[in-house]
Specification:
It contains two helices and no strands. It is mostly helical. It has one domain. The chain is elongated and about 80 Å long. The mean pLDDT is 82.
């Protein structure tokens, strides 16, 4: 009976951690979206200031934004890999 209770507790703890992780993933996605959109607005304003009266080529702005987004996504992937590696080190497999 004690083993069943222990297993139920482990299952509940796992489900709670899984739910928290999903929530954190959603928060991360929202934050990434906000960062990208903020950067895009700032970059466009910067280009307007640099170019003054010259009409901006929207294709040029889009290409610059795409290049920056790729760079930022690569940095985020690297940080995520490091965080996952650290998490594995922080939580070794459970032993009975």
């Amino acid at each position: 009976m004690a083993k069943i209770t222990k297993l139920k507790r482990y299952k509940n703890d796992f489900e709670k951690a899984k739910t928290q992780m999903e929530k954190k993933k959603e928060e991360l996605q929202k934050a990434e979206t906000e960062i990208f959109s903020s950067y895009g607005r700032l970059k466009f304003e910067e280009l307007q200031l640099k170019n003054g009266s010259r009409k901006l080529d929207i294709d040029e702005v889009i290409l610059e934004q795409i290049a920056f987004n790729k760079e930022l996504k690569n940095k985020l992937r690297e940080e995520k890999k490091v965080a996952q590696a650290n998490q594995k080190n922080d939580f070794p497999p459970h032993q009975n």
